[in-house]
Amino acid sequence: MNSPWPQRGLYAITPDDTDTLRLVARVETVLVAGAQWLQYRNKAANPHLRREQALALLPICRRHGVPLIVNDDWRLAAQIGADGAHLGEDDGELAAARAAMGDRALIGASCYDRFDLARAAAATGASYIAFGAFFASPTKPNARRATPELLQQSAILRLPRVAIGGITPDNARSLVAAGADLLAVISGVFDAPDPAAAVRAYLSCFDEARSEEFPNE
Ligand SMILES: Cc1ncc(COP(=O)(O)OP(=O)(O)O)c(N)n1
Ligand SMILES: Cc1nc(C(=O)O)sc1CCOP(=O)(O)O
Ligand SMILES: [Mg+2]
């Protein structure tokens, strides 16, 4: 993908926080610590609050050079000038989002535990494919479970591969080793006692994978 955005790293996803000022402060901490992408996701917010919060996060993301992806609602993403949208199986047609948002928008697709969904999303113009849940997720306890082999298998699609679901700094290495380009995390970052330290711990998983690939650097 020819994209101005980093293609590896930590993809932080916001928790269900209905206090906008507090959410903004929490996100600022995480972006200062080095998270490369941000998704605004808030299942506890009504449409008015979602718009308010997404708008509040946009200047922070801009300041840190981090793309803002809006979960579920590509129309909201387009209205506020966000960088993209993340779509799951109940979130509308990827083709319609792509047509409305244009070639440069980051449009991600949830593929759960299914390679066929990833192949279809790639053919329809997804910017990245997301698989999960790889581990038991405190945020989504009933999520379907995916295996690291799916990350390996989907290398052939030549799109950034996002891993999600119960990822901690301790279990993340296995996913990076299997080919995850971006680690998408909610609780492991935002519920950590020290979110900035958690961000750094996730990022170190990529450094370690690289030094194993290129031991003389
Ligand atoms: C990066 C990323 N991957 C997967 C999801 C899950 O999307 P979806 O299945 O639509 O579920 P909700 O997030 O809407 O509950 C995601 N949001 N981000
Ligand atoms: C939003 C979401 N989607 C998933 C999927 O498998 O598609 S798992 C998940 C929750 C991710 O939160 P945490 O990092 O706290 O486990
Ligand atoms: Mg969704």
Summarize it.
The chain has 217 residues and is α/β, with parallel strands linked by helices. The chain has helices at 20-33, 47-64, 74-80, 94-101, 115-124, 148-153, 172-178, 187-190, 195-213; strands at residues 9-13, 37-40, 68-71, 84-87, 106-112, 128-132, 161-164, 182-185. Helix content is 43%, strand content 17%.
Q: Any idea what the CATH architecture is? A: Alpha-Beta Barrel
Radius of gyration: 16 Å
* Count of strand segments: 8
Report the CATH C-level class.
Alpha Beta
Strand order of the largest sheet: 1-2-3-4-5-6-7-8
* Main sheet makeup: 8 strands, parallel, barrel
The H-level CATH homologous superfamily, spelled out, is Aldolase class I
EC number: 2.5.1.3
GO molecular function: magnesium ion binding; thiamine-phosphate diphosphorylase activity
Cofactor: Mg(2+)
Binding site for 2-[(2R,5Z)-2-carboxy-4-methylthiazol-5(2H)-ylidene]ethyl phosphate: 137-139, 166, 186-187
